[in-house]
Fold this protein.
Amino acid sequence: MNVADLIDEVITREGGYSNHPADRGGPTNWGITQAVARANGYAGPMQALPRAQAAAIYRRLYWDQPGYGFVAELAPAIAAELFDTAVNMGVGTATGFLQRALNALNRNQKDYPDLKVDRVIGARTLAALQAFRVLRGTTGDRVLLAAIEAMQGERYIALAESRPANEAFLYGWLANRIG
């Protein structure tokens, strides 16, 4: 798996500069909010955020720090989904979706112990993922991916229901992030 390709796909999908009035993130470029850019050392105007700097932020915050490279060693498609979900919903949410799905798919702990949904990739989460894959194989990857995307889709709808301004984004979220 080439994480640079995943980052390029996200940057392309996110597009250039935006400052949509309904977006709580405020000024955004390449999908990087002004707050995230500032927290990662960028002090210039958001319209001028270099694509390479955005890519470095994506790699550090949404791939390296959460440990999705370790997931990629076991299940590349799952790691790619976690990365994309983390970019859009946060690392903790994406990782929590994985842990919840693994818990729900372990047949009442017959296949591996339940995980504490701590929203962190650690040894137990990786062991559960490996046990799941040994039992279910590549077909299991598709099922696990579907479970993660189901939770993601439900969250998008809940966001639109709880804040009507988010309806401006719902169609795009569903069209570009699910499936």
